[in-house]
C-alpha cells in the first residue's frame, strides 16, 4: 500500500487504511498458523497418510508481492534467499484464512505436507493469496553424525531442564537423558535409509517401526520413541522445530525416557537433502 502525505482533512482516511492493513496481516498470520497446525497432525493426502511435521518457519524474504511478475527463482535470488527448491501457490477467491486453508487442503495437500520445505512466506491482496514454500541451501559445516548427535542431546537436555507446555500438555522439568550407542546406531541407519531412499517416515521400507529396529539392533529397553526431521542443517534448528510441534515436544519432555541416540544423514540427490532421527529409550 502506498503512503501519501496529507493534511488534517484526510486523517480519518489514514486510520481506515491502517486498520485494513492490520487486518490483512492478521489473516496472513492466521493462515500460516493454520498451515502449521495442519502439518502437525497425521493427514490423509493423495491416498496416503502423512507424518507429523514440524512447523514451517516464516521468512520475510518469501513474502513476495501478489502482482509481481517475473521468474520466482530470480525474485528469491534478488531477495537474498539461498534457495534449493521452491513451490509457489496462488489462490484467487478465498475471503479469509480458513477459506484459503480449505482450498489448500483440497488442492495442494501434497505441497503443504512435503517434508523438504522448511520456510514459508504468505502474502495477500484482498482475495488474492500467494503462499511460497522453500527449502534453503544447507548452511555451515556439520560434524560427523556422532558429534551432531551429541549436540542434539545437549539441546534436548537443556529443553528438559525447564517446565514446558507442549500443546495441551504441561510438563514439569525432568531429568537429563544419557547417550545410548545402540540407539545412536539405529538412528544413523534410519537417517541414512531415508536420505538414500528419498522418503520421510517412521516406518522403513521394510515396514519396521522404531521399536522393531531398536530390538533388531539388540536394544533391550521397554519403551522406545522417535522424532524425525528433514531439510534442517543444525541440531538447534531441529530441536526448535520439534518444540513447536506438540507431539514431538511431548517426546522431548517425556519423563519416562532416560536414554537417547541421534544422527543425521545427507544425500544431495534426495528431496530434503538432510534427514535426522532421534530415538528415545527407557531400559
Question: Key features?
Answer:
globular, 39% helix, 283 residues, four-stranded mixed β-sheet, disordered N terminus
Written overview of the protein:
The protein is of the alpha+beta class and 283 residues long. It is 39% helix and 23% strand. The chain has nine helices and twelve strands. The chain has helices at 11-39, 72-79, 97-107, 109-112, 145-160, 181-197, 210-216, 235-243, 246-253; strands at 44-45, 48-49, 57-58, 83-92, 119-125, 128-136, 164-166, 169-171, 178-179, 223-230, 259-266, 274-282. The strands form four sheets. The protein has a four-stranded mixed β-sheet with strand order 3-5-6-4. Strand 7 (164-166) and strand 8 form a beta hairpin. Helix 1 runs parallel beside helix 3 (97-107) and helix 5 (145-160) runs parallel beside helix 8. The N and C termini lie far apart (60 Å).
| Stretches with pLDDT under 50, minimum 5 residues | 1-24
Sketch the major β-sheet: 4 strands, mixed
- The topology string of helices and strands comes to HEEEHEHHEEHEEEHHEHHEE
**Rg measurement, Å:** 21 Å
- Average pLDDT, rounded to a whole number, is 88
Helix content: 25-40%
Number of helices: 9
The order of strands across the largest sheet is: 3-5-6-4
